[in-house]
């Protein structure tokens, strides 16, 4: 967490894992916010990636900011907030973890209550910079096939439409946005089937 931790930091984190772990033939799976990070990773280490799967993830265009593309905050306000963060001022975190906890009280996740409690207990905040900064490399820059797993109950419906517009292959899942926690076995099986990686060991 920090006022300088945004898209570029997260792209660098993943690229460094590829390089220092010498990873190749990777199935890159991007869930939720990670959809804004994946295009930058693919641009740098795409030759090490065998297949790309978006798991109910954000589908950004180059130059967009998460807060405005998701319809949460007007673009001009986000630009001003980003400038404030660049100057070393403003909120460090976005408070998204608390927003998720509050939302779950009104609309519980499609999973066992004990599992949902574990999920909500372990949520952590996201840097405000990641929400406010410009995403330099968007999904339109990905020049390879992408499979998109679309949850049935989610705030990502508009992102599903963007994936279709890009010609990506859509796979429907009956769960909600937290499908990887609510249905880990079904999600894993679907990822393995899509990627051609075979059955789990």
Q: Which regions are unreliable across 5 or more consecutive residues at pLDDT < 50?
A: none
Assembly annotation? single chain
What is the overall number of helices?
10
Task: Assign an overall shape.
Answer: globular
Distance between the terminal alpha carbons, to the nearest Å?
A: 36 Å
Roughly what fraction of the amino acids lie in strands? Answer: 5-15%
User: Which series of helices and strands comes N to C?
Assistant: HEHEHHHHHEHEHH
Q: How many strand units?
A: 4
The main pleated sheet reads as:
4 strands, parallel
Mean pLDDT: 95
Structural class: alpha/beta
Radius of gyration: 17 Å
**Helix content, binned percent:** 40-55%
Structural write-up:
It is a single chain. This protein has 201 residues and is α/β, with parallel strands linked by helices. Helices cover 44% and strands 14% of the residues. The chain contains 10 helices and 4 strands, in the order H-E-H-E-H-H-H-H-H-E-H-E-H-H. Strands 1-2-3-4 form a 4-stranded parallel sheet, sandwiched between helices. Helix 8 (157-165) links the parallel strand 3 and strand 4.
What are the SSEs and their pairings?
Elements: H1 7-20, E1 26-31, H2 38-45, E2 49-55, H3 66-69, H4 75-86, H5 96-106, H6 113-122, H7 128-132, E3 147-153, H8 157-165, E4 169-176, H9 179-182, H10 184-195
Parallel strand pairs: 1-2, 2-3, 3-4
